[in-house]
UniProtKB/TrEMBL annotation:
Signal peptide: none annotated. Residues 114-146 are annotated as: Disordered. This is Peptidyl-prolyl cis-trans isomerase FKBP8. It comes from the Eukaryota.
Length: 146
């Protein structure tokens, strides 16, 4: 990576620069795969982002980034990335499976969070007052019966 980055400062033709960019992208792609195997998730995300700067339609990297975000529980970030990958390659069964699993997990997570929120706030009654508790004038109550 150092050699590729430092050689970018030399005078090159457009074709040479493109070849260098392709090589850099391949190296970063391979690096992200290795970092993923080592569970270095922050590094994987950094490598994937560098690749996506030059190749926003790189399906392999989109899939890796979505997978890492999912492993970190960042479902709302991972889902759009995996959908973008699936849009580029509709028939990819791995992306379909990962996205399907992720959407189910995200739905379950949201319903659990909602249940916890309701539990923390208490079960609000079905009948809520329509005026503030300290409205000026005579107290009319909440308007609820029973």
């Amino acid at each position: 990576m150092k050699a590729i980055t430092s050689s970018a400062k030399l005078d090159m033709t457009f074709e040479e620069e493109e070849q260098l960019l392709q090589l850099k992208t391949k190296c970063l792609n391979d690096l992200a795969a290795l970092q993923l195997k080592l569970d270095h998730y922050r590094s994987v995300l950094r490598s994937c982002s560098l690749v996506l700067e030059h190749q926003p339609d790189n399906i392999k990297v989109l899939f890796q980034k979505g997978k890492v975000l999912a492993q970190q529980g960042e479902y709302s970030e991972a889902i759009p990335i995996l959908r973008a990958a699936l849009k580029l390659e509709h028939s990819n069964k791995m992306i379909h499976a990962q996205l399907s699993k992720l959407v189910k997990k995200h739905t379950a997570q949201r319903s659990t969070e909602k249940a916890l929120d309701q539990k923390m706030l208490g079960n609000p009654s079905r009948c809520q007052p329509s005026v503030p508790a300290r409205a000026p004038g005579p107290s009319l109550g909440s308007g609820c019966s029973g």
